[in-house]
Amino acid sequence: MPKVATKKAAAAAGGAKKAAAGAKKSKLYNMPEKIKEGTILTDMMKGEWKIGPSIGTGGFGEIYSATKPGENKYEYVVKCEPHDNGPLFVEMHFYMRNAKLDDVRRFQKDHGLKSLGMPYMVGNGSAEINGIKHRFIVMPRYGSDVAKYFLENNRRLPEGTCYRLALQMLDVYEFIHGCGYVHADLKAANILLGYGPKQQHQAYLVDFGLASRFTTKDFKPDPKKMHNGTIDYTSRDAHLGVPTMRADMEILGYNLIEWLGIELPWVRDKLLANPSKVQKSKEEFMSKISESLKSLFGSAVPEAVLEYMKYVSKMEYNTTPDYEKCRKIFQNALKALKYPNSGDLELKLKSRGEMPSTSKAKTAQTKAKVKKSAPVDVDDSENEVIDASDDDDGDVIYDNKRPIKKEPKTNNLKTTKDKSTPKVTPKRLPKSTPKDVLKMSPVTLNSSLKRKSLDVSRSPLSSPSPSKRTKLNGSINSSAKNRSRRSPLKRPSPSGHNTSSTSSPRLRSTPMNAKASIRMSPAISMSSSRSDVSMDANVIVNVKRKKKPLQPATEENSHTTSSSSKSTPLAAKTTNSSSTPVTRVNVRKVGGGDESPRTPAVTVKKSRRVHRSPS
Ligand SMILES: Nc1ncnc2c1ncn2[C@@H]1O[C@H](COP(=O)(O)OP(=O)(O)OP(=O)(O)O)[C@@H](O)[C@H]1O
């Protein structure tokens, strides 16, 4: 499936080196150049990595199998993106600060865990590929993603496996939260099984491209980060742009419901094109969680889901999760099912994994769906600002003040003539043409995004395949920096949403006079022989918007219960799609139909020219 991405003229076709330099100024991301099999990349510690076949394409980069030269095991992967791209930058620095093998091992030891689904980085560096500077990280290789099985099973997983995955992800959350970060994008597509036959008992949470420091002080909605995540599972706090630990827990809960074969209300009601409506639907859902679950599962609400979601719904934005309590919930559920919490994870549905209760619930939901066919909603919405710029690592502020080695400026790339490696000539990505760009008016289009409305763009036949993507601008940690300056804002009430703005035409209805660019991405190249290949399909909508004045927040129904937010003198309305002061909206989105949802967007920030403190 091809990608769809925005692009600006500055980054237009060709001019490799020039384009790379220009990309620094542009708002666009480039797709990575293909790396030839057999290429040797040298990381900043002078470790060498031989590139094998591509095994997956993410929203922003490509993932290759890799091996140490002289070995032929390909038990690593290299994730590579153009140097200017934000997500890999974020991910790399998350790993550098928090997740080296020693950190992971220490956590395992401290918590008595035989294994932990936390990836780690074994190397990183920069390399010029076809004259364009790229960043790469090297990680252990994992196996198939859980989304593959979820889809093969007609959108469900065995119940016992759902609880085992929840338990494993809670461990990973505990690790990440312990580092002061949230993951913010847990989903089946980001959960990978271990690699190899003896590793099937453990699942790994990958993709730290949205990881950020969480908030425990004031609850301050951040319009620039609103709706970050994968819209299906984005937490209520993330809809407001606030990274919290309870948000991660909520995301897990939504996934769990879906893994059990139940369509989430905002998916069922086809609201995904409108983040504000999704947000409102989630607010309602969580505000009366027992009733909500009953309406989804019928009389067969799994006890563990009810208990877990009740717990999450009561968490404060600054609560550190009670991981042990949550673990107990799922351990008890496994006991009740007589389902072992050990051995290979069972991902294909078979008699033991089929749970009568959720089957019943799914049947009930299907019947209900026949009755209720919600109209497709392509209304206006606030999406989010993608704002990142990440050129030189040395310009980054590090919260924890740990020094980070600067990458060497050498070109760390050579190609071997290793006969053991089969020769594959990577497909070149077709160049884009101006007519691929769909222009939309920034004033009239409220950056709404709809899977189906954009489906046509994803057909490889219907579009050429440009190799450019949006670039994110901004500064890392600026939100932290600004925290002290901003007044805490209250979570607005669902009733405060204006979800049916009439001032903005719908995306589908105004394609030609709007200013956002929607482009096809290159055909995604994957090694077809592999069963654990994964890919991302994306649509990027990039809209510049006028600033609008802040309006007072409504007080009712806020699920943010902080004393600070309650006492806020300057509460501001933040979720009303027509009032949020977003200057630029940029959404990357996601396959439709049966695909697993992809991370739609990222907000990445970075401050420049700030000296790091020595450790
Ligand atoms: N360590 C790994 N081992 C094996 N496969 C991997 C590994 N990391 C990633 N992949 C594969 O590549 C796919 C994309 O990876 P990842 O999600 O990290 O990329 P991304 O560009 O951040 O994607 P997105 O942001 O769109 O979710 C994964 O779904 C997975 O199938």
Automatic annotation (TrEMBL):
Gene3D superfamilies named in the record: Transferase(Phosphotransferase) domain 1 (1.10.510.10)
The protein's name in its UniProt record: non-specific serine/threonine protein kinase
Transmembrane segments: none
Enzyme class: transferase
Domain Protein kinase stretches: 49-334
Biased composition (Basic and acidic residues): 398-421
Keywords, sorted A to Z: ATP-binding, Kinase, Nucleotide-binding, Transferase
Ranges annotated as biased composition (Low complexity): 357-367, 456-467, 490-536, 559-575
Keyword flag Plastid: no
Classification via PROSITE patterns: PROTEIN_KINASE_ATP (PS00107), PROTEIN_KINASE_DOM (PS50011), PROTEIN_KINASE_ST (PS00108)
Species in which this protein is naturally found: Musca domestica (House fly)
Residue ranges with Acidic residues bias: 377-396
Stretch list, region Disordered: 350-615
Biased composition (Basic residues): 605-615
Catalytic activity, EC: 2.7.11.1
Domain of life: Eukaryota
Binding residue positions for ATP: 79
A molecular function GO annotation: protein serine/threonine kinase activity
